[in-house]
Predict the structure.
Amino acid sequence: MSKFRVLIADDELPARNKMKRLLKKFDDVEIVHVAENGLDALEHIHSLKPDLIFLDIEMPGLNGLEVAENIDLETPPSVVFATAYSEHAIKAFELNAQDYLLKPFNEERLRATINKVTENKAETVLDKNKIAEILKSEMAEDIKTPFANKVPIPTRDRYKLVDYSEVVCIEVEERSVRLHTKEKSYLLNHTLDTFERKLPQDQFFRVNRSCIIGLKHVKEIVIWFGNRFKIILSNDKEVISSREKSKILKQVLKF
């Protein structure tokens, strides 16, 4: 029987050590990675594809909810949120999370969680729309990270943080997306739907099935054939809006 592959994400060393110590008592569990922050967790979730992740909610870089929202795998892992605050646990259930661990927890409680996950794995999938709603709610202020308005760009040995205000557009490129600023572009292993959920709607607009633009970077709008627009951006990139989105764009840009 193959082991249940687990990833742990918690910014507090004692919490990480306790989780590792308890999980090592379970013969059917294999710890594949231990992350100290949300960015590290998300990177290794995509590369290692664990069966189960334990996410602390309050972490630097990306908090646990933001990590869960940005998981982009064909077969996503089961998610268990760990928190010291019961109000966050209630929200976790609303997200359709497999379970939550209210700190401090013991071996018996952890075993119950793992049993629950293994029994119900095929039945429960995270509702990313609910995550997006919670992150935009008042609760988000309690767990807001210093990087809440930045896109983390992974490089070989670090993350570059691009402020939302610098994002000119994001477009589909094969099975990934390419994020453009005025000076550079970056290929990211995400979907356009992920960015559409996460980016603030008052700053960004999806002009067609394959492109999101930063509204502050719209330099010129040209009336195009077929009741569409050609949008010229601040980096001189040109994007054609769909007919449906052109109608909405008129309202968004107030003209």
In short: The chain has a mean pLDDT of 82. DSSP finds eight helices and 15 strands in the chain. Helices lie at 13-23, 38-48, 64-69, 86-94, 107-120, 128-135, 192-198, 243-252.
